[in-house]
């Protein structure tokens, strides 16, 4: 006869006894090949025995239940699973109470969250919350038969607190490849099911030119369910530093603070510090508030410690709202330069900027188009009081713009737009401008596009779109200072724009024709290629732009852009401005390959010197970065930046990473070769080691070791 099954309500005659004045748990279920009863006290289940009770499942070869002392005598092999498989106990034999939460298991092993394994000679379960493990070996490494784990912790005793999800080790010894390397009289570690556990983080060893060799050891403090604080002391022969990070999530927003305080030999006797903070909040009526704070005590602190490569800091607070018919934004930004070339004249640079803008749609009609109105306010201040160099500027702009689009016969797309605006400027501390300046500007454009699509035999699809735009715009009134349009670009995004200037202070003028063509080929094999060629021809006002911006003269340089995409594996983008004599004033190219094991990306940037943009030297830079996954566990990475004008390497780095189911090791070496009056070339070596299997480690998905045989 095949296995017989018997469901018994153990809460009755053969049951878990009900606790006085407490609601009894759901009845237990017992399934076995054979069940017998001796007298009125002993129940014996044999064969493939399964006991299900209050979320716990026990399987064993034989179970004897004694009603008188309410105990279970269990013969293994035993498997006890709790919490939906979150915790699994394997043992040879056991004596447990009827709730399966008190008693002793012998020659046992606990597997927590399928990561951490703890083998013990004996496990005593106490009060349904604690487990006391004797003569313990703990590891998250895969152990092959007869082998030694990569690392393990051996201890005389371990207490597991299932409520707090903590492990307490007594007389703990840390071993690597079987060799003892550290001893801890007491050691507390979070079990893998606890994602945010109070305690020490993995140590990090750092060697940096200015700071020497030191160690960083973080301590994580959860603050409720939605906030945490991390302290990271960093100590070397030349510095004593305390780093900190605070994070908190609110119902309608979040904040993040990063900072550090140092006393070092680089600036003896001074306390050095920095604070970066950011956050965002949802406000009533669909408004959003965001802020960003960047503070530092001296110009070289961020570079000396490798906290950031930023050489200009900006702190801001902004309130914005975006709707279908409205865009609103208001904000204040504070600037600070760390560039050595700008520090002596820092009081001549803008340090405060206030901006306010609202754009509102007044009308929308399928035939007549859309009419928008806008108001922009900007105020910029410099700390210097010197006439000319300490110029403060405020601007108020108001205007209207209109756009309409129609589809004409034979597929022609007709677009029309017009705009008009009034600007008022208030200028202080600059005798070259009147204190109040007024300007009126406006213009219009019509554009014709003729998109064509053709399906070729075999599946390739070609899209060709020639376009031509006739635009005219003019500004009259006072000449105003230029604060927001000192750098211009010509690219695919603004080839058919009313103005190539990025801001309001400069306004492109004259009658001109913008023309170009875009071609794209989509192949059914998963690759595509595209190209754009365009140019601007001016009938008047040819001297608005610098000679090497690509926009000067009657005819601009040719804009040539190419993209290639191979099934999201290989991608190339390139953009150049080419003169009639084939001289290139600007060029940007980037290529990237992402394969199963190899990632490789490179970019090249070239810009000719342009004094009107305060660039007095040619710029040519090459950058390469990549990584290669050697096997399931090892990955190598590198990066390199090269200044082609000076034929010097500006920075380089190498990295090696090891990951498996129980260990993560990150080793990186980087060198910055550039220097200035406040920053010296620096070499940095970082080593970080993390043990998986504690506190919700992110390494749990790493490849597990494979045993042979």
Structure description:
The protein is an all-beta fold and 709 residues long. Helix content is 1%, strand content 60%. It contains one helix and 41 strands. The strands form two sheets. It has a 26-stranded antiparallel barrel. It is elongated and about 110 Å long. The two termini are 38 Å apart. Mean pLDDT is 89; it is low at 1-23.
Task: Furnish the topology, listing elements before pairings.
Elements: E1 29-31, E2 34-38, E3 42-53, E4 56-66, E5 71-82, E6 87-97, E7 103-112, E8 116-126, E9 130-139, E10 151-161, E11 166-176, E12 179-190, E13 199-200, E14 204-208, E15 212-216, E16 219-223, E17 227-236, E18 239-250, E19 253-264, E20 271-282, E21 288-296, H1 301-305, E22 312-323, E23 326-337, E24 352-365, E25 369-381, E26 392-407, E27 413-428, E28 436-449, E29 452-455, E30 461-477, E31 510-522, E32 527-538, E33 558-566, E34 570-578, E35 584-594, E36 598-607, E37 619-629, E38 634-643, E39 648-659, E40 663-672, E41 682-691
Antiparallel strand pairs: 1-3, 2-3, 3-4, 4-5, 5-6, 6-7, 7-8, 8-9, 9-10, 10-11, 11-12, 13-16, 14-15, 14-41, 15-17, 16-17, 17-18, 18-19, 19-20, 20-21, 21-22, 22-23, 23-24, 24-25, 25-26, 26-27, 27-28, 28-30, 29-30, 30-31, 31-32, 32-33, 33-34, 34-35, 35-36, 36-37, 37-38, 38-39, 39-40, 40-41
